[in-house]
Specification:
Oligomer: single chain
Number of strands: 36
Shape: elongated
Number of helices: 2
């Protein structure tokens, strides 16, 4: 039986048109939305005015409704205000703008030609700003935790803040970090996008000094080797899905193991996925999943996308342990039948890209590996995949356009459980077609 399946992705525009030339203040104050109450008035001479009384604190930008590349302004300077107005320089597509404390704004004027913004109003009392360095756990001890008071910086009373971390054992490699204000994300961060990087060329014990100048802003880290690497006792943690870890789902330090072992007493019925980590997902971290399962695991413990997977039907004690890189999970679990599979053949009839040239396609058919398969159609006319009948067995076809990873330029969805052969008859930008039997 033949099925003719086509999918066409159509972008629908709202009946109410949004003018691309409109300018908005978009930030934490309004959820980063292009909201009407923070829309500027276009004066027609390259300037935009927002006459509005409101409190402004944290980060924001000036941008159009679509985050376009023309009306999109950030700055490297902090925003402050006075009754006479305080002007800062703007940068097209620049970093988020941060306020110097809490501002009671009465008016903002943006000049898109001069790339300047002037803020009118009164500045609140100087806030007791606390600056903290957040970063990878190997460097900071806590993994990207803005509330870690051990990483608070000291006010040097000269416009700079400093944090000194001593006796840190670091392997050779790159370590990322950034500065955060008042123990929370979203108030003020530097850099506002991306992270700074500290490069360690030789393993050892280091003293690392972080220096922050908020007004500029500028942030540096200087590492001085003080000795050879220190032996580190590995701590192991269990992480997993919400059924296992609740609100700490997939947190690298969700459940600390006691001497490489942890017992879940009377584990509730449910489906569980888990891994063991050394406390970090960053490059200095390690994790052990289904590939590390030992032969001593109880029946019913297996793999799901590289994670350890099992189903508990009746509450019972589940013991998880790790030794010599092998993970053992014991308990009473549901034993699932092996998935049945069949071969699905995909045949190229005609395949072309926008300019008429054949291109590679990416295929995914819920195969046993659960991986994307790159199909260079200019070299092969057919492709056979082993498909899992128990899963949805859905095929997606994407136009590679010389990309190294699949893209959503074109796709098709087919219930492979009802077919054994699929013919591709076109792939174009935004649409794809196939018929199957």
């Amino acid at each position: 039986m033949k099925k003719f399946l086509t999918f066409l992705a159509v972008m629908l525009m709202s009946l109410t048109a949004i003018n691309a030339e409109d300018l908005y203040l978009r930030g934490g104050v309004n959820g980063w939305n292009a909201s009407a109450d923070y829309k500027f008035t276009d004066k027609g001479d390259g300037t935009f005015t927002l006459d509005k009384t409101f409190d402004l604190e944290g980060q924001f930008k000036f941008a159009d409704a679509n985050w376009g590349s023309v009306l999109n302004f950030g700055s490297t300077e902090e925003a402050t205000c006075s009754e006479q107005g305080v002007t800062i320089n703007l940068v097209t597509n620049g970093d988020n703008i941060s306020t110097d404390g809490k501002l009671s704004i009465t008016k903002i004027v943006v000049d898109k030609n001069q790339k300047k913004a002037t803020f009118f109003g009164t500045k609140g009392a100087a806030s007791d700003a606390v600056y903290t360095i957040a970063g990878q756990s190997a460097l900071m001890g806590a993994d990207w935790d803005p509330s870690a008071t051990a990483n608070d910086m000291t006010d040097m009373k000269d416009g700079t803040y400093q944090l000194v971390k001593e006796n840190i054992s670091l392997a050779a490699g790159d370590y990322e970090y950034k500065a955060v204000k008042n123990h929370a994300w979203g108030i003020w961060e530097y850099p506002s996008s991306g992270n700074n990087k500290l490069t360690i060329s030789e393993a050892g014990t280091y003293t690392v000094t972080f220096t922050l100048t908020p007004a500029t802003p500028a942030l540096t880290a200087n590492a001085v080797k003080s000795g050879e690497p220190q032996p580190v006792e590995t701590k192991y943690y269990i992480t997993g899905n919400a059924a296992l870890c609740g609100e700490k789902a997939w947190d690298a330090q969700a459940i600390e193991m006691d001497d490489s072992t942890h017992t879940f007493t009377a584990m509730a019925a449910g489906e569980y996925e888990m891994k063991i980590t050394n406390g970090a997902w960053d490059p200095a971290g390690q994790s052990w999943g289904s590939a590390a399962l030992s032969e001593e695991c109880s029946a019913g413990v297996g793999d799901k996308d590289g994670n350890i997977h099992f189903i508990v039907e009746t509450p019972n004690n589940v013991i998880v342990s790790i030794a010599n890189g092998k993970v053992t999970v014991t308990g009473t679990f549901k034993q699932e039948e092996p998935a049945k599979t069949f071969d699905l053949t995909i045949v190229q009839d005609t395949l072309w890209s926008k300019d008429g040239a054949k291109v590679a396609a990416w295929i995914w058919a819920d195969d046993l590996e659960g991986q994307w398969t790159e199909w260079a159609t200019n070299n092969n006319d057919t492709l056979t995949l082993k498909v899992n009948e128990k899963a949805d067995s859905i095929i997606f076809i994407r136009n590679a356009n010389d990309a190294t990873e699949p893209t959503w330029d074109a796709w098709n969805r087919i219930d492979a459980g009802e077919i054994n052969e699929c013919h591709i008859y076109y792939i174009l930008d935004w649409n794809a077609g196939a018929w199957c039997e």
